[in-house]
Amino acid sequence: MPLNDDQSSDSDSSRLSESTASSSDSEYSRQSFNSDSSSKPSSPASASPPKSITFDELMAAARNLTDLTLAHEIAVNANFCIKDEDLPRNSLAGTVKQIVHKAFWDHLESELNEDPPEYEHAIKLFEEIKEILLSFLTPGANRIQNQICEVLDTDLIRQQAEHNAVDIHGLANYIINTMGKLCAPIRDNDIKQLKATDNIVELLRQIFRVLDLMKVDMANYTIQNLRPYLQRHLVDYERTKFQEILEETPSALDLTTEWIKESIEDELSSVSDESSSSPGADSSSKPIISPTLVLNNGYLKLLQWDYRKTIPETLITDEVRLQELREKLNQLKIIACVCLITNNTVGAAIVDVPDFAEQLKRISLPLLEGMNKKTFDLKEALNAIGVQVCSKVNRSLTERGLPTLNEEMQSNLMGQIAHIVEENNPVSSLIDKRIQFFMRNFLALPSFQKCMPTMPGGLSVIQTEMEFLGSQYASIVNFNKQVYGPFYANILRKLLFPEAPMGKAETETPTN
C-alpha cells in the first residue's frame, strides 16, 4: 500500500509497523489498541475493600474492556478485519440516510449553479477532504503533506471564491490524483471511475465514497501490521489491561469468583461421593483438592454454559469462540447419538458396512445446520433424520440381499432418534459424558505434548471433528490460564485456604 510518494512501499511498511509497535506520536498512537502493555507490573486481584465508583471510572473501565477485547480479537483471529457495511436500503435508517444525503447534494448543486456560484459548502467539503488525506500519511511524509496543505488551503480558496476564480475541477483532479498515490491497489478501478466523472457534485459525492473505503483499507492495514506485535506481547498486555479494569471496578472478578466457587463445590461433592463409596475411608479428614482440577472443571462447564447468562469476566474475550465450540459439540453429539442408536437397533447387518457411519453423518449434518438459531426446530430435524436413516438402512440392506426393516423396527428407530432431545435421554447422556471425558483428557495433556488423547467408544464417527475442536478448546484454555493465572491463584487461595495469610500472588497459573 503506497502511503508516501517519497519512499518505497517496503520502507513505508517497515515504518508503519514500527510506529504501531511503539507509543510514539504517529498517526496510529491515537488508536485505542496501542501496545503500551509493560508500564505496570502484572498483579492479581487486590484484597482491598469494595469502594463506590464514579460514572467516569465506570466508563474508563468500559473503554479498557473494549481495548482488551479488540486487541485479543486482532491477535487470535487471523481473519479479523474492519468491513465497510452500509445500512440496508429498505430499512428505516437506510431510507433516512438516503433522503438526508440526497437533500445535501441537491442543495450543493443548486448553490454551485447560482450566478455567481456559492462556494461555502464546497469549501467545507474540501477542508474535510484535506483532513482525511492528511490522516492517511505516515510520519515523515513532509513533501506530500505540505503540498496537500498548500493546494487545499481553504483561506486561499475563499479568497478565490470572493473573486469567482475558484478552479473547482482543478482542485477535484488534484484530490483524485493524490488519492491514487495513497490508496491500496484494490481501489485503482474506483480512482479510474472518478477520473471519468464530469459532474462536479456527483464527483465530490463519489470522492467521499472512495475516501470511506480507503479509511477501511487503512484500518485493516494497521491491524495487519499490529497483529504480529500483539501476538508477541498479548499475555502481558491483556493482564495489564485487566488489572487496570480491576483497579477502576473492584467488582470485576465477582462472576469469575462465583464460577470458581461452583467448580470447587462440584469437586468437593465428587470427592465426598467417592469417599462414602470407599470402605475404610477417613471421613473426618479434610479432602485435598487440586487447584488445576478445579480450574479444568470450570473450563469444562463452559462447554455446557447457558450463554444467555453473563460469562465470567476473565473469559469475555473468548465468549464467541466458546459459544461456537459448544454449538458444534452439540451438533456432533447428536450425530454420534444417531449412529449409536442405528448400530444398536439394526445390529450386525450394518455394523461392518464400510463407511456406513460416515454416510449417516453426511445425512445428519445438513439437517442440523443452524441448530443454534432460536427459530430452529430440533424435533422436526430429528424426525427428518430418522426418516433419512431408515431409508439409507433399507437401501443398504436391499443392495446386499438382506431383508429390510419392518414397520415396527423403523418406528422404533425413528422414535429413539426423535427422543435424543429429551432431558436425561440415556443415549444422549452417555455420549455427552464421553465427550466431556475426551475434553477433560485434552486439558490434562501438558501444553507441549502434541499427541491426541484416546477417543472414547462411540465417538469414532466424529473423531476428526472432535480432535480439531479439542485442539481449539485447549488453545483457548491454555492461553486464558497464561493471562489470568495470577488472578485465579489469588481467588483459589482465598477459597481453598481461607486461613492462610494473604501474600503476593503467584505470577504463574496452576499447571498440569
Overview of the structural elements:
The chain has helices at 9-20, 55-76, 92-112, 120-135, 142-151, 154-162, 168-182, 188-195, 200-248, 254-277, 291-301, 319-346, 348-351, 356-367, 378-399, 407-418, 426-444, 463-496. The chain is extended. It contains 18 helices and no strands. The protein is 64% helix and 0% strand. The chain has 512 residues and is mainly alpha-helical.
What layout of secondary structure does this protein have?
Elements: H1 9-20, H2 55-76, H3 92-112, H4 120-135, H5 142-151, H6 154-162, H7 168-182, H8 188-195, H9 200-248, H10 254-277, H11 291-301, H12 319-346, H13 348-351, H14 356-367, H15 378-399, H16 407-418, H17 426-444, H18 463-496
Helix pairs in contact: 2-9, 3-9, 4-6, 4-7, 4-9, 7-8, 7-9, 9-18, 10-11, 10-18, 12-14, 12-16, 12-17, 12-18, 14-15, 15-16, 17-18
Give me some keywords for this one:
18 helices, disordered N terminus, mainly alpha, 512 residues, single chain
Largest sheet: none
Number of helices: 18
Oligomer: single chain
Element-level helix/strand string: HHHHHHHHHHHHHHHHHH
**Total beta-strand segments:** 0
End-to-end CA span: 45 Å
Report the portion of residues in β strands: under 5%
Indicate the percent of residues in helices.
55-70%
What class would the helix/strand composition place it in?
A: mainly alpha
Radius of gyration: 31 Å
The coarse overall form would be: extended
Average pLDDT: 79
Show unreliable segments.
1-53, 503-509
Give a short summary of the structure.
The chain has 512 residues and is an all-alpha fold.
